[in-house]
């Protein structure tokens, strides 16, 4: 027998629960299905645990630098990983539990535990129960990609999920992948006391950033004693006397790195392979991402895909924005589209990188006339006062419309400061509006108008 609902939501990540609330408030009978932990990746194995641990790593780093500020710590600074983990577990568990109780107490909403699988375009099986609905919303997220490299089955490896459970300081962590996950974990464990080697096959770290930004990130990490291997493709794994080896295809440096622990941070894979999509006729691309239009509709009428699994974003804020788009179009008679949003994200190394819009390189390639402004963080008094002068800020402007095309703020507070630029971009205001705004002293943001007053032709 099929249990009928007005809407089925698969996954309780960053879009599903908020959508369940809006649909149920609109009087719909909603079923939401989760097979692992409530809250999905961000809450359990992504943003929340990593940023909690990044905060511990920052405390360790600052304690080691205490002398720079005239603060005396008698004795050595050391890290108790059991306590770091306990703090992280408490914050994560509270967050996951609050998503669960929110959903379980939601009027008109029924929670199902188990793995959902389509039986047809409008029916989904969870265990022994078959659910039917005219509308289904897929919010199944992604998982770490495990590359099928020779020797992978011979070595103990970790991913973003399993490395979070470690309660000791690894002696030497090898990180394959020099992007978000590799860099955030790499710096964090270096600050906990590990030796860290980051292996990246591209010629630079976080390769889609501008060259000077990538170079500044490399400087920050090398300054802390992290070994960085660029142009080095990991091609195999092995074991040597209780240690793990990573074989590299590289023109420079040793062709093998040996360490005590291994983190695979080589990208993600959508959780669409076991969803029974063929039974429903729902299309995916060659990487398994659900194919959607600008309103997040799949090719099957009545089926939407939200969050990381649609390949249109890979962040919590893009998944949440997907919820807002679907809810607005379905319930508020609005017309919102994915293409209306401006790319924005942060990289949570310390100091963080805040990014909005196009890179300078993308603007250059587009051929449009543009202006550029840059300022090193050494010329920002707030950074000088805090003793955190690494990094730079950079902005690029369309020289015809005078609107901001993009910006990078790599420096203390960069993840927050970027928002004044982002909001000016959404307002489609000329840069002069931001240039003339009176900002508060002493802040990093107060130097944005100054930087905008010193623009040069790109
Ligand atoms: C280490 C790490 C750090 C990150 N840090 C940040 C950050 O600082 N800022 C940021 O913006 N983003 C960050 N991200 C990315 C962010 O976590 C994701 O973009 C976000 O969680 C995506 O949300 P989602 O709703 O699409 O999917 P998810 O949060 O992955 O949720 C999907 C849910 O669906 C469930 N599910 C899957 N298949 C089924 C099924 N068949 N049946 C039932 N349930 C199913 C899963 O169990 C999961 O709970 C990070 C990611 C990682 C890995
Ligand atoms: N701050 C944040 O918002 C944040 C933090 C963590 C993760 N995330 C999300 O998680 C996703 C995954 O992050 P990620 O860092 O795992 O993946 P990624 O796709 O961003 O980067 C993977 C990196 O691994 C490299 N690589 C792949 N195979 C390799 C090999 N064999 N040898 C050497 N290098 C190799 C690639 O060149 C690339 O630089 C990102 O898309 C991001 O959106 C976001």
From TrEMBL:
Residues binding NAD(+), per UniProt: 177-184, 200, 267
Binding site residues for FAD: 51, 308
Disulfide bonds: 42-47
Lineage: Bacteria, Pseudomonadati, Verrucomicrobiota, Pedosphaerae, Pedosphaerales
Residues the record marks as active site: 441
InterPro entries with a match to the protein in the record: FAD/NAD-bd_sf, FAD/NAD-binding_dom, FAD/NAD-linked_Rdtase_dimer_sf, Pyr_nuc-diS_OxRdtase, Pyr_nucl-diS_OxRdtase_dimer
Cofactor(s) it depends on: FAD
Family named by the database record: Belongs to the class-I pyridine nucleotide-disulfide oxidoreductase family.
Annotated protein name in UniProt: FAD-dependent pyridine nucleotide-disulphide oxidoreductase
PANTHER family linked: MERCURIC REDUCTASE (PTHR43014:SF2)
Entry-linked Gene3D superfamilies: 3.30.390.30, FAD/NAD(P)-binding domain
């Amino acid at each position: 027998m099929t249990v009928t609902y007005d809407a089925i939501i698969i996954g309780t990540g960053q879009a599903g629960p908020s959508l369940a609330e809006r649909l149920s408030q609109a009087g719909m009978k909603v079923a939401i299905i989760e097979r692992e932990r409530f809250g999905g990746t961000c809450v359990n194995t992504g943003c929340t645990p990593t940023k909690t641990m990044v905060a511990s790593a920052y405390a360790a780093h600052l304690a080691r630098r205490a002398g720079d500020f005239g603060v005396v710590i008698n004795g050595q600074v050391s890290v108790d990983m059991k306590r770091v983990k306990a703090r992280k577990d408490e914050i994560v568990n509270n967050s996951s539990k609050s998503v669960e109780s929110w959903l379980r107490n939601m009027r008109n909403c029924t929670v199902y535990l188990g793995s959902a699988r389509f039986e047809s375009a409008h029916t989904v099986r969870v265990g022994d129960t078959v659910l039917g609905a005219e509308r289904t919303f897929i919010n199944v997220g992604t998982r770490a990609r495990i590359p099928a490299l020779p020797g992978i089955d011979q070595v103990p490896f970790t991913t973003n999920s399993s490395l979070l459970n470690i309660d000791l300081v690894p002696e030497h962590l090898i990180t394959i992948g020099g992007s978000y996950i590799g860099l955030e974990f790499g710096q964090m464990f270096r600050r906990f006391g590990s030796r860290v080697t980051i292996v990246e096959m591209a010629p630079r770290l976080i390769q889609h950033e501008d060259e000077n930004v990538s170079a500044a990130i490399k400087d920050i990490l090398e300054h802390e004693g992290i070994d960085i291997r660029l142009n080095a493709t990991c091609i195999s794994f092995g074991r040597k006397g209780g240690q793990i080896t990573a074989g590299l295809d590289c023109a420079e440096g040793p062709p093998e790195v040996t360490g005590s622990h291994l983190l695979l941070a080589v990208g993600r894979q959508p959780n669409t392979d076991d969803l029974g999509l063929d039974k429903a006729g729902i299309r995916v691309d060659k990487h398994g991402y659900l194919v959607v239009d600008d309103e997040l509709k799949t090719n099957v009428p009545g089926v939407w895909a939200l969050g990381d699994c649609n390949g249109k974003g890979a962040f919590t804020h893009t998944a949440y924005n997907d919820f807002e788009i679907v809810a607005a179009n379905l319930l508020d008679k609005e017309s919102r589209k994915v293409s209306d949003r401006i790319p924005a994200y942060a990289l949570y190394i310390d100091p963080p990188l805040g990014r909005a819009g196009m890179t300078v390189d993308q603007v250059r390639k587009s051929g449009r006339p543009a202006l550029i402004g840059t300022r090193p963080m050494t010329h920002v008094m707030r950074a000088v006062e805090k003793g955190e002068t690494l990094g730079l800020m950079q902005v690029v402007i369309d020289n015809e419309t005078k609107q901001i095309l993009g910006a990078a703020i790599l420096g203390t507070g960069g993840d927050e400061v970027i928002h004044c630029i982002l909001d000016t971009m959404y307002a489609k205001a000329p840069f002069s509006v931001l240039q003339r705004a009176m900002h508060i002293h002493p802040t990093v943001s107060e130097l944005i108008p100054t930087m905008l007053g010193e623009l040069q032709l790109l």
